[in-house]
Write a structure and sequence with these properties.
The chain has two domains: 7-73, no CATH class; 81-251, no CATH class. Helix content is 23%, strand content 25%. The protein has helices at residues 7-15, 31-45, 167-171, 175-186, 208-215, 229-239, and strands at residues 23-28, 52-55, 68-73, 81-90, 101-110, 118-120, 127-129, 139-143, 150-154, 159-160, 195-198, 221-224, 246-247. The strands form four sheets. It has a five-stranded antiparallel beta sheet with strand order 9-4-5-8-10. Strand 6 and strand 7 (127-129) form a beta hairpin.
Length: 257
């Protein structure tokens, strides 16, 4: 919200904002609020990469004595990007405005040169769906941007959410583990011949959802380190690991069957 005669400040702020972020301008239901929207209209004329999602200026004036009006600049959808309609967001305690956010959602739009391929981890190993993006029910990724229901990211940075992993579970993962998992799928090309090592599998930072995600794209062997024999016994019970040293995912049985 801006007071009268601060419209110039609004323009200066807008000129220094990247087209990849979302910029909201709000005003009260008064002359100043309407003026802010007028300034907004002027701003959108200058930078062609800005896209105005919504400007509300009713012809009959603003109804009621109070209210809020807003203009929304959505992130630019580049040629290789996808626009994801967010269903769930996850962050960690102590996170700042620059911290990465985990997000789960459905692909709403794609850039003009985005290949219709999203890595899937719903089968026994990572593969590529070469049909259309609409075949991917939900995708998971991480982004360092504020979200207002929409996230725009490069299509290579999202993967399909395993069928048996709920959005709430996935977004509850610590961001560092989510990033590691995405790295395994996207950069590491983990396949049935891979061997995966997880350190300190009994720690609170290695939750069930991460293991569940891995079992949907299992390597040939999963090795785990634990700090003590006591924790090892807890680990075998908690994670249903049949062997203290080597876990073959094909023999892995989920607690619910």
């Amino acid at each position: 919200s801006f007071e009268h005669e601060q419209e110039g400040d609004l323009i200066k702020i807008a000129k220094h904002i990247s087209a990849k972020v979302e910029f909201w301008i709000t005003g009260n239901n008064d002359a100043v609020g309407i003026a802010a929207l007028g300034v907004t209209a002027c701003i959108t004329v200058e930078p062609p990469e800005y896209k105005v999602k919504e400007i509300v200026i009713p012809a009959s004036g603003l109804p009621g004595a109070t209210g809020t009006v807003a203009a929304h600049f959505s992130p630019t959808l580049r040629k290789s990007d996808v626009e994801v309609e967010v269903r769930a967001l996850g962050t960690e305690s102590g996170a700042s405005s620059k911290s990465a956010l985990a997000f789960i959602g459905r692909i709403k739009r794609k850039g003009s040169t985005t290949r219709t391929e999203i890595r899937s981890v719903a089968s026994s190993c990572p593969r590529v769906i070469a049909a259309t993006l609409t075949l991917v029910p939900q995708v998971v990724g991480a982004a360092c941007q504020a979200s207002v229901g929409i996230v725009v990211v490069p299509y290579q940075t999202v993967v399909s959410l395993p069928e048996r992993v709920s959005p709430e579970y996935a977004t509850a993962l610590p961001t560092v583990f989510l990033a590691s998992w995405l790295g395994l799928i996207i950069r590491g090309e983990m396949d049935p011949s891979s061997v995966l090592l997880i350190h300190d599998v009994t720690s609170s930072g290695c939750p069930y959802p991460l293991l569940l995600m891995i079992t949907n794209s299992p390597p040939s062997q999963l090795l785990a380190t634990v700090p003590s024999s006591f924790k090892l016994s807890v680990s075998i019970t908690r994670y249903y690991v049949p062997s203290p040293t080597t876990w073959k995912p094909k023999n892995y049985r989920l607690p619910w069957g």
